[in-house]
Amino acid sequence: MGSQQGYAPVQPVAFSHALHAGEHKLDCRYCHFGAEKSRHAGVPPLEVCMNCHSQVKKDSPEVQKLASAFEAEQPIEWVKVHRLPDHAFFSHASHLSAQVKCQSCHGSVETMVRIEQVEPMTMGWCLECHRSMGKPPPEAPASAPPTDCSACHR
Ligand code: HEC
Ligand code: HEC
Ligand code: HEC
Ligand code: HEC
Ligand code: HEC
Prior knowledge:
Blueprint: H1 17-23, H2 28-31, H3 46-53, H4 61-71, H5 92-97, H6 102-106, H7 123-134, H8 149-152
Helix pairs in contact: 3-4
């Protein structure tokens, strides 16, 4: 598998986080609405895009790709960027309820024209944060991030 740090593949539609999350200040959770409730943040369905793009920039060829896929009821085949191996367990919901920011793990997404994996996302990287947040000896052990193997390898 190996680390995919720096991976920034060309996507089928030139969607820009810098434009939507940066310039237009759309909240990450408006599109990635799965993140708070489940393991996966997920990528938004076309319905979310068409809330605006049934009106906004209808003459743009990139937006027309959205409109015709929507009409044909075909999803956009976004290239997945971040991916852990199956033996590692990770959940967005528990990290977000512990107030960890998206940017701590994904970098300054709101400045990215094309999405990129900026952190190594290796076991050492996970543990580095877990250990630093567990120190000094936790007053409230229930909320200290786990460092035992079985927490992440179930
Ligand atoms: C208008 C909708 C929208 C908003 C707002 C948005 N995103 Fe996204 N995001 C997408 C889409 C569409 C993709 C898939 C296409 C791509 O990779 O550019 C994506 C992809 C991603 C990915 C990569 C997914 C993968 O394949 O690994 C990450 C990480 C991400 N977004 C984080 C964020 C963060 C953090 C914010 C807020 C700062 C944010 N997004 C705001 C629509 C959005
Ligand atoms: C809240 C409204 C809103 C939502 C939701 C939204 N967009 Fe946008 N989008 C905009 C605005 C505003 C622009 C900039 C238009 C301009 O340049 O005048 C834009 C621009 C774009 C462009 C560039 C068009 C061009 O040729 O300049 C693309 C591509 C795009 N959006 C894709 C998407 C995708 C894919 C989604 C869903 C994941 C999405 N947008 C969701 C408002 C939105
Ligand atoms: C503690 C680190 C961490 C935080 C915080 C975090 N992510 Fe992630 N994110 C990851 C990891 C690790 C993956 C790969 C997960 C996998 O392959 O199972 C990922 C994957 C994703 C993906 C790809 C689709 C998916 O769900 O696997 C998107 C989109 C995404 N994150 C968006 C966000 C957004 C938006 C936020 C904030 C609301 C956020 N992430 C907060 C670590 C994090
Ligand atoms: C905080 C979460 C976490 C904890 C705790 C953790 N791991 Fe991992 N581990 C991961 C992740 C994520 C990966 C996949 C990324 C990678 O290979 O670095 C991984 C990968 C591995 C691999 C595969 C390495 C390879 O080269 O393919 C082994 C073996 C492993 N862990 C063993 C352990 C053992 C033994 C422990 C306890 C001493 C442990 N892990 C604790 C998250 C964790
Ligand atoms: C920026 C800091 C940070 C990073 C990076 C991080 N975590 Fe965590 N993790 C936390 C915090 C904080 C908690 C929450 C402790 C609590 O309140 O329960 C947590 C909790 C967990 C839990 C226990 C809750 C649950 O969902 O079962 C697991 C498992 C876990 N993390 C796995 C991972 C893995 C795997 C990675 C790397 C891919 C990772 N974490 C990266 C901060 C981090």
